[in-house]
Amino acid sequence: MHSSPLLLEEPIRMASILEPSKPTFFPAMTKIVGTLGPKSRSVDIISHCLDAGMSVARFDFSWGDPEYHQETLENLRVAIKSTKKLCAVMLDTVGPELQIENKTDHPITLEADTLVVLTPDQNKEASSNLLPLNFTGLSKAVKKGDTIFIGKYLFTGSETASVWLEVSEVEGEDVTCLVKNTATLSGSLFTVHVSQIHIDLPTLADKDKEVISTWGVQNNIDFLSLYTRHVEDIRHAREFLSKLGDLKQTHIYAKIENIEGMKHFDEILREADGIILARGNLGIELPPEKVFLFQKAAIYKCNMVGKPVVVTRVVDSMTDNLRPTRAEATDVANAVLDGSDAILLGAETLRGQYPVETISIVGKICAEAEKVHNQDLYFKKAVKYVGEPMSHLESIASSAVRAAIKVKASVIICFTSSGRAARLIAKYRPTMPVISVVIPQLKTNQLRWTFTGAFEARQSLIVRGLFPMLADPRHPAESRSGTNESILKVALDHGKAFGIIKPHDRVVVCQKVADSSVVKILELED
């Protein structure tokens, strides 16, 4: 039977904090997105990442060629089969990212109080006093006194791995900068970030479009992570995807990482399928004391409209260390308490020394934070935000969650075709898992018949508390008789196999019966 949750607002026995956490099949309700790369692309490592709790694999195309990523994806598929753990695929586009290529591959050391020139002439070799940039318009975008950051991958805040520059002179297409801190830049590619400046480059570059229309189409990507500054960025991307066959079903997640994206957040949220708070660049754009305010406000807005929100850059130090810092551990927990659906790990799993351990530790922190999440207060806020009269589906979803909590159900089972009903239930943050039974639909384009459902099932893997299973297409999502015993039995057996349903447990079932939506409570026998 489901245990009563602890609340931070209530006294907690200190001894209970020391009690070891019980292992479960689902490490946490909060999902983990892992970026696959050099340190995490073998079948063995990916299998361990899936077992540790990774449910979405991110492929970052700001580095590596499609063939490299394809090999990694093939390894992921082998790992999925061997572990029997579902995993969705996210393609992360480069977008209007400024980069410096270090063709020498030797580390470049920049000394504080010296000058360095940023030039668009990429034929020149990178050195400690000259850095070639992939953008010709920098001299027109900046002025004396502006701030520019350069680092590997993204900015960790480590003053020895990223450099802070101040523009001192603009001459022709070259920009001369004063180096503000001593740093050594290593690797072949450095990311450049110009604080609070509009970069006149397209959101979907030609390279991005080529990758999406070849690699993306070939692999039926579930999510597209899109650098987003305006709502039109989402609309253009959706129009582009609509012409690429099955990719019209791909969900677009808006990466908010600068002031432009923040200013247009509300309209972006209305158009996007989900939001990624890219805190690496946001931490540079915003004063440090304002970062948490934007995080809390953005997550709240996403929660209230029922759209998944993903938080990045939480355990940077685990790129090189086996344990997170105290601040990082607390940051993960606060992201969960704020309402995040998922935590995205970038460098920590891409090139970090401990990808599996990182996923495992983040999952454990998330699980502990979920135990003290005030669901009752959250539920009241969500219901109040929706207002009255509620839509039919919203009313059913909120009622299913309330009933499950009142009877202390161990799980909610939701039958769905599109996944929308299950996502609405998850929106109300039930304290128990939601098994989303996705019923495939038979569709035709006049040339061939196909089943839908795989996309919908995998796209649930980024939503907090939602655990999908793809049903046999011979069983309809809508029942005419009031029961759908065979498919319900499969779902119950699924829950029992994972250890989340036990004898004498209560289970709440949400399904359509004829033209009506029904919420029913089952009490299981032995």
UniProtKB/TrEMBL annotation:
The lineage of its organism: Eukaryota, Viridiplantae, Streptophyta, Embryophyta, Tracheophyta. PANTHER family: PYRUVATE KINASE. This is Pyruvate kinase. Keywords: ATP-binding, Glycolysis, Kinase, Magnesium, Metal-binding, Nucleotide-binding, Pyruvate, Transferase. One of its GO terms (biological process) is glycolytic process. Residues 394-514 form the Pyruvate kinase C-terminal domain. It is an enzyme of class 2 (transferase). Pathway: Carbohydrate degradation; glycolysis; pyruvate from D-glyceraldehyde 3-phosphate: step 5/5. Belongs to the pyruvate kinase family. One of its GO terms (cellular component) is cytoplasm. The keyword Kinase applies. Residues 30-359 form the Pyruvate kinase barrel domain. One of its GO terms (molecular function) is kinase activity. It catalyses: pyruvate + ATP = phosphoenolpyruvate + ADP + H(+). Its EC number is 2.7.1.40. The keyword Cytoplasm does not apply. Pfam families: PK (PF00224), PK_C (PF02887). Its cofactor is K(+). Gene3D superfamilies: Phosphoenolpyruvate-binding domains, PK beta-barrel domain-like, Pyruvate kinase, C-terminal domain. Coiled coil: none annotated.
